[in-house]
């Protein structure tokens, strides 16, 4: 357990682990879903995975919506890379920004889960159908995340290949 904790970066702790633990706590507290506790190791893995899902929802769904309505603005990625190499504080600020986005995403996901719970009760949806829909949603979410990450890699390669 100590080895796993030592290998988690502050980015992973703030962007994935904490939002995942907060999400699991709120879901249990509001009696929406209890992720259960088998052991401390399983809990950390579950919180981390939930945090990754929440972070991806924030990155792939929430961020584009907020950009689309003009709530947040982002400059060109190439300018960000240049600025980041000159100012190490930008990485810390980005980490904080991603934490806030993940916490917003966790709260929105909690509201969505509560809505699904109410709809499932009203329409008598089976637990199996909700589980299958969840797996399909996760598949699409991670496919979109993979595409977005690949675009970031390509942008970085292009940026560095243009450097003298």
Rounded to the nearest angstrom, the radius of gyration is: 18 Å
The number of E-state strands comes to 0
Number of helices: 6
Morphology: globular
Order of helix and strand elements from N to C terminus: HHHHHH
Question: Could you tell me the mean pLDDT?
Answer: 91
How much of the polypeptide forms β-strand, as a percent range?
Answer: under 5%
Determine the structural class based on helices, strands and strand pairing.
Answer: mainly alpha
Note the main sheet. Answer: none
Helix-residue proportion: over 70%
Low-confidence stretches: none
Cα separation of the termini = 45 Å
List keywords for this structure.
single chain, 164 residues, mainly alpha
3D structure, described in words:
By secondary structure, the protein is mostly helical. The protein is 82% helix and 0% strand. It contains six helices and no strands. It has helices spanning 2-7, 10-29, 40-68, 77-86, 89-123, 127-161. Helix 2 (10-29) packs across helix 3 (40-68) and helix 2 packs parallel to helix 5. It is globular.
């Amino acid at each position: 357990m100590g080895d796993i904790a030592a290998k988690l970066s502050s980015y992973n702790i703030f962007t994935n682990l904490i939002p995942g633990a907060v999400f699991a706590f709120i879901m249990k507290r509001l009696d929406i879903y209890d992720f259960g506790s088998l052991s401390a190791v399983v809990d950390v893995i579950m919180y981390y995975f939930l945090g990754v899902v929440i972070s991806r929802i924030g990155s792939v769904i929430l961020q584009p919506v907020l950009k689309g309505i003009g709530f947040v603005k982002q400059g060109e990625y190439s300018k960000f890379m240049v600025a980041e190499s000159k100012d190490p504080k930008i990485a810390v600020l980005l980490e904080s920004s991603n934490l806030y986005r993940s916490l917003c995403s966790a709260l929105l996901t909690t509201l969505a889960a509560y809505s699904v719970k109410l709809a499932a009760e009203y329409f008598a949806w089976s637990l199996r159908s909700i589980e299958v829909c969840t797996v399909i949603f996760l598949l699409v979410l991670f496919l979109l995340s993979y595409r977005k990450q690949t675009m970031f890699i390509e942008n970085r390669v292009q940026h560095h290949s243009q450097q003298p």
